[in-house]
Amino acid sequence: MGFYIVFAMFIMQIYTTGATVPAVIVFGDSSVDAGNNNHIQTVLKSNFRPYGRDFFGGKATGRFSNGRVPSDFISESFGLRPYVPAYLDPAYNISDFATGVCFASAGTGYDNSTSDVLSVLPLWKEVEYYKEYQKKLRDHLGDQKANNIISEAVYLTSMGTNDFLENYYTLPNRRSQYNINQYQDYLVSIAESFIKELYGLGARKVSLGGLPPMGCLPLERTTSFMNGNGGTCNNEYNKVAMQFNGKLSGLVERLNNELVGSKIVFSNPYPIFEQIVQKPSSFGFASAAVACCATGLFEMGYMCDQYNPFTCSNANTYVFWDSFHPTEKTNRIISDHLFKTVLSTLL
């Protein structure tokens, strides 16, 4: 009996202190950006109210939500800080980043041309900042401790929606080069190179994030309504998201066989997100078709500001915060689900 008590205490310690995960390191787009866009020349920012009104201290950090984003909840689930700071935020330094750091940039994607649309950080630049971070970490902690953090950290990646919605379906260039299936394959090849580069830099525990049902974002529902389709989800976009997720899942399987000593998982938000959107009341939501901020039909960023009289008073009753991004409550539900079903296997 004594052995089982000790073993149970050991397991509890892992879950409460994150003993086997020293850090969470984040790459991606606005789904996980903790405020890096505040510090670059772009119109795509959210460092103003009412963004962040439900964050710690009611601070608008540059997260595209009323509060925390998924990577914050996942960090907390691993027993680390309840938020992951942005690498470009001068309020933090390398001692803060040793247990978690976010390189994500709202508006970016796998495709470099996607980041050009709104002048945000391309994925290659996020990786360059990560290399810089590694050097600072080694200078701060010494090679041995730094290398341990690098190899034992969990790497979260979340991007791809902008490649389709802001680039492929909006601008003519990629559509003239690729059909939709070919473009998916092009993005998957970039994702593969990206993960292999992280592996070459020492990463071993990686979560590759999938796409949500992007045809059900309020902005896409509004577009559908304007096109005479009654404000329903764009099923073509949802089908593309599912196809792309299937290809990412296949990539993860291949890479696990190829990259010795790696543990790569596919974190697919689509099924749980679809359940929330289809039956919002089952999760305590009143609305999934429109967002909390402003009219909830098309606004995000600067169009969603503190002077807009239409913004809802209680974001917890809405699935979406603005026309493109979930509320903190939705982020928590999805993050908790992914942690329990997928990410906890990285412990």
TrEMBL record:
Cleaved signal peptide residues: 1-19
Family: Belongs to the 'GDSL' lipolytic enzyme family.
A Pfam match: Lipase_GDSL
InterPro entries, sorted: GDSL, GDSL_lipolytic_enzyme, SGNH_hydro_sf, SGNH_plant_lipase-like
Presence of the UniProt keyword Signal in the record: yes
Organism per entry: Ambrosia artemisiifolia (Common ragweed)
Coiled-coil spans in chain: none
Gene Ontology molecular function: any one: hydrolase activity, acting on ester bonds
UniProt KW Signal keyword: yes
Protein keywords: Signal
Protein name (record): GDSL esterase/lipase
Top-level taxonomic group: Eukaryota
